[in-house]
Amino acid sequence: MIAGGRIKHHLVREITRPESTLLLIGYQAACTLGRQILDGVSPARILGQSYPVLMKVEKIDGFSGHADMNDLQRWLNSFKIPPKHVFLTHDEEGSILSLESYLSSKGRWQVSAPTYLQEYVL
Prior knowledge:
The protein is of the alpha/beta class. It is 30% helix and 16% strand.
């Protein structure tokens, strides 16, 4: 998603070079630099500066560093004593609400997808 780290410095060096290619190999969340570049936004703002996107941008689907819905349920089922409450905090709104509904329907856990600044007493 190009959210931080050395990738931004590599991009600054390569983004204006038409002979370079940025290969995105996973999901690019809304409002991230990776998504903006994938969607064709130019210039791109990187490290406080604007750069025209002249490099080629390609994407390969099918790679993910996250478990899917079934993997998460399988992991939760593996506990001898299931958690009392599951908090879903990392996804886009539509997907996270769908996962919340799915896991809640299994009936073994209380499931919540907190909104920004929402608080829970544990």
